Amino acid sequence: MIIKHEIPYPIREIEHIWIPLADGTRLAARIWLPKDAEENPVPAILEYIPYRKNDFTALRDSMRHPYFAGHGYACLRVDMRGSGDSEGILYDEYLPQEQDDALEVLSWIAAQAWCTGAVGIIGKSWGGFNGLQIAARQPPELKAVISLCSTDDRYADDVHYMGGCVLAYEMLNWASIMLAYNARPPDPRFVGERWREMWLERMEKSPPFVEAWLTHQRRDAFWQHGSVCENYADITCPVYVVGGWADGYTNPIFHLLEGLPGPRKGLIGPWSHEYPAVAIPEPAIGFLQECLRWWDYWLKDIDTGIMDEPILRAWMQESMPPQTHYEHRPGRWVAEPTWPAPSEHIQFQTYWLNDSQLDSISASETQLEFKGVQTHGLDAGVWTSYGVSGDMPSDQQAEDGKSLCFTSAPLDEAVEVLGFPEVRLTIAVDRPQALLAVRLCDVSPNGASTLVSRGLLNLTHRDGHEHPTPLEPGQPYTVTIRLNATGHVIPARHRWRVAVSPTYWPHAWPSPEGVTMTLFTGQSSYLTLPIRPPQLSDEQLVPFEPPERAPFLHHEILRPASRKRTIHRDLIEGTVRLVDFIDDGNKLLLDSGLEFEATTTDTFSIVEGNPLSAHVRCDRTVGLHRDDWCIKIETTSTMSADADNFHVTNALDAYEGNIRVFAKSWSSTIPRDLV
Question: Are residue 323 and residue 378 in the same domain, yes or no?
């Protein structure tokens, strides 16, 4: 339940204001601040993203920024260059220009009469990324950051690659979303008659991001830029990193807590890719109040006690039957005073991969041969959940049947895991290119298999992601795969299972040829689990407050959101298609009279036995409507590959009313680089 709280300070809103940059470009901003801020200046909080302040994030923004303003802050939602109502072109994610503009924005904010000169940055996803990246530039105005659902490593922990494998589910998907975002026009209410000229220029010049992302298949300078893990010491201001176990960006929280030199805190709930006050799975928390404790401490010098608390607080999830959607994940809050945790808090337990079993002692070595199945991975859920039905992995029993599995005996007592499981494997393959997908599952007494964690490794990247090398067929290699971080309680009588496969479609783009792997058991291969026994201090944690929200924009739902996710099998041709359709619905903002809607359809297809048949298609539609202003955007993006190259196409059509006013297509062939 979300409680509407009366804010202590009356506020005013500036719906639109221009922030001038040195090169003549103007960025559009929306501001909420206390009514008397000019007479009594306040610190400022910036959110800086490309997702359009006046329509597609307007409802979300109205739940947070007015709340902070009502508690004594000036809050700004700034559309980045080339997005929303801002001028210029958006050429890619996290470019130097984006950070340069942010430094100018911070300087402008600090110079305003209503600002004390102290500024914080808050953001989720893109805004969480650039909050860290801007902090690494050490602008003097920036005093603290709250970064949600973000990463410290753009190559290893983002939507493009995982373990050196192309993330087929996300690579084109996310690029196609941004293609449709960049094609949306500015609002004539704010930019006037220039809107059409700006719109056409934006569509003509904004490239499909996927072409650059797929060109850089190694961890080179392209990905090192904007990856703050390159030098954590660059970030000296305080940072609060936040995420959820259902999100794809949980690993960086542990990395940042370990690597950052300055004041820092981490918070991990059961949540999806959303703010913790409204995220699914619940329990939600009073995240607005938690943010205020952080801001008051660092921007107003008020001792809220937040820095006296443990560095990491995480939701220890109890075991549940596998479902594709969870409204609530039972569990409890646990905390660690430091990270890495003290050795007395976390011990490491080893299970050896013996024949088909996980054992506490290793047996004599055997060799197990397994041929990869191209349709392994269809029950894996999405890479990062938004909390909607269908996102989470379903029962893994069918996936286990398409893998080489090792299962423990039933546990005598419950075991709690917090951190990164690791699997070391000695393995040989029959092709010069191959990947490994490793899953860790919780198997109940009735046989249901719940995914706990997973990891990928492109074996040509076995010695690092900068300089991959082909494999020698038949040659044994020993590799370590760090699985995604997890917080999980496995009950007594349940069993651990490790599942290994050389395929994982559509999460990982398949190797050019079908792969048969040989796994060496016994001393050569084992699982390591970070075991965290319950601590007495966990019971003494102060509970979070219940969620609150600020005044919400008046709006109507003209068409509710919906989702359909289906798998289609052709039993004659062997083709399997996963079709994921999401309708974001149609909303009307009553104050501005603007309607906006969007739908997405992603189709992933493959033919069993033929890895070169892998194909992704992403279709997007976007609509904007006010009075006689009616805009529709349609995009289609595809991705496929032969043995040597990836093939990518993008098409964009834009309509004003029923008239098509713009059409453009792109086609590229990009060499495969040991992927």
Answer: no
Give the max Cα distance, the chain.
78
pLDDT tens, position by position, 280-300: 999 999 999 999 999 999 999
Instruction: Report d(CA 247, CA 441) in Å as an integer.
Output: 18
Nearest to 25 by CA among 64, 71, 78, 70: 78
Structural domain containing residue 610? 165-216+554-590+593-675
* Whether residues 665 and 562 fall in one domain: yes
d(CA 226, CA 212): 15
User: If you write DSSP's letter for every residue of 22-77 in order, what string do you get?
Assistant: TTS-EEEEEEEEETTTTTS-EEEEEEEESS-TTTTTHHHHHTTHHHHHTTT-EEEE
For residue 99, give the nearest of 127, 126, 125, 137 by alpha carbon: 137
How far is residue 535's CA from residue 389's CA, in Å, rounded to a whole number? 34
* Same-domain status, 140 and 184: no
State whether 228 and 212 are in the same domain: no
Question: What residues are paired with 19 via a beta bridge?
Answer: 27
> Using the 8-state DSSP alphabet, how is residue 114 labeled?
T
Question: What tokens does 280 get?
Answer: 């699914």
pLDDT band at residue 549 under the 50/70/90 scheme: confident
Residue 333 has pLDDT above 80, yes or no: yes
Q: Which of 490, 505, 534 is the last residue before a domain boundary?
A: 534
Same domain, yes or no, for 90 and 116? yes
